[in-house]
Amino acid sequence: MCGGVRYQLIEPFARAGFCHCSRCRKVTGHPSSFNGVLPRSGLQILAGQDLLAVYAAPGDAKSAVFCRVCGSSLFRAEWPDGPWVGVRLGTLDDDPGVVAEYHIFVDDDAAWDLLPDDGLPRYSGRPTAA
Fold first, then answer.
1. 86 pairs with which residues across the strands?
2. Is residue 130 one of the residues assigned to a domain?
3. How many domains does the chain have?
4. Considering the domain boundaries, does residue 10 fall inside one?
5. Domain span at residue 27?
6. For 102-120, how does the pLDDT look when each residue is reduced to its tens digit (9 = 90+)?
7. What is the CA radius of gyration of the chain?
8. Of the N and C termini of the chain, which has fewer Cβ atoms inside 10 Å?
9. 18-52, pLDDT tens digit by residue?
10. Does pLDDT of 5 surpass 80?
């Protein structure tokens, strides 16, 4: 949001989908988080590496990575050295080149949220391919 962190995708997304877990909901303030997933090697931080803050919840292998200046939620990953990174697609300036393929953690969805009838597969957790 502040423009302090700039990144570039140097590989295409392998997949993309909506996560309805309580952690993504709380860190984004939205019923779900729309994330594109790519190999960690496909994400290059161009500016603001020193502005990245990481929150690792106890018992969660994946961390929330956000800008310490404006608070924008940027990534979800085993940061910084995990094999994959989830990029919050709302942080992109351009078309991500990928469309939603699934909904995950739907059993953790907020009681007040209505999951869309969009025909996408729904999973109670993280399927082995997602």
1. 37, 76
2. no
3. 1
4. yes
5. 6-108
6. 999 999 999 898 898 999 9
7. 14
8. N
9. 999 998 999 899 999 999 999 999 999 999 999 99
10. yes
pLDDT tens digits along 59-85: 888 899 999 999 999 999 999 889 999
Q: Contact at 8 Å (CB) between 64 and 71? A: no
User: What string of H, E and C letters represents the secondary structure of the chain?
Assistant: CCCCCEEEECCCCCEEEEECCHHHHHHHCCCCEEEEEEEHHHEEEEECHHHEEEECCCCCCCEEEEECCCCCEEEEECCCCCCEEEEEHHHCCCCCCCCCCCEECHHHCCCCCCCCCCCCCECCCCCCCC
The domain spanning residue 93 has which CATH number? 3.90.1590.10
Q: Is 24 among the domain residues?
A: yes
* Residue 130 confidence class, pLDDT cut points 50, 70, 90: very low
Query: 101, 17 in Cβ contact below 8 A?
Result: yes
Can you give the pLDDT at residue 58? 86
**Between the CA of residue 56 and those of 23, 27, 33, 34, 99, what are the distances in Å?**
11, 12, 17, 20, 28
Domain annotation covers residue 124? no
